[in-house]
Specification:
71% of the residues lie in helices and 0% in strands. With 185 residues, the protein is mainly alpha-helical.
Length: 185
């Protein structure tokens, strides 16, 4: 199991010992906590979910020496509490982004401007499977969108959570591409 690059080895060892004295169980707990953190951030609309999950883990590791002697119970809720604060920090510091829509009908003709043409350009740069996935992911509204996403996940043979993470990664790439394109336009 590879360590997160920003975590020094002694911090990594401290984290694993805090999660469970048995290394295999500690590794499994770590993976489960990290995946749950990513889901939490994706659910809150964060396009940098993996980065924020890693920041959360870094922050918890920095606090383990102060809390481990007094902390009782499963460590997972502590991570989720820290994630709440990491999310609030992210909301305060993030740059305003261009809202991305992949439904061409949702954009009125008079609103077609640099952002829309940049979105089209950036969608064109995506590999075909990623482009198709993101377009399908954002198609429809309300209940139809939910059903489409369930069907899409089933077709891909993954859970809806994994589909959310895939869509989040693609959207993150699109967001960065569109923002760069708009800034240079």
């Amino acid at each position: 199991m590879p360590a997160i690059p920003s975590i020094p080895q002694e911090g990594w060892n401290l984290l694993l010992r805090w999660l469970d004295p048995e290394i295999e169980r500690a590794g499994a707990k770590y993976e489960r906590i990290r995946q749950n953190l990513i889901r939490i951030f994706v659910g809150r609309g964060c396009h940098e979910a993996e980065l924020l999950a890693d920041r959360t883990i870094d922050r918890v590791i920095s606090k383990i020496p102060q809390i481990q002697s007094e902390y009782v119970g499963d460590p997972a809720p502590y991570f989720y509490g820290v994630a709440h604060y990491i999310h609030r920090e992210w909301l305060r510091t993030r740059k305003p982004e261009v809202e991305i829509t992949t439904d061409a009908a949702a954009v009125e003709p008079e609103e077609e401007g640099p952002a829309y043409s940049c979105l089209e350009k950036c969608l064109g740069k995506l590999p075909s499977p990623s482009r198709e996935l993101i377009v399908e992911y954002y198609r429809d509204e309300k209940r139809a969108k939910i059903e489409r996403r369930r069907t899409l996940a089933k077709t891909l043979g993954i859970s809806t959570g994994a589909l959310q993470i895939k869509a989040c990664r693609i959207r993150s790439m699109l967001s960065a591409c569109v923002n760069d394109c708009v800034a240079t336009a």
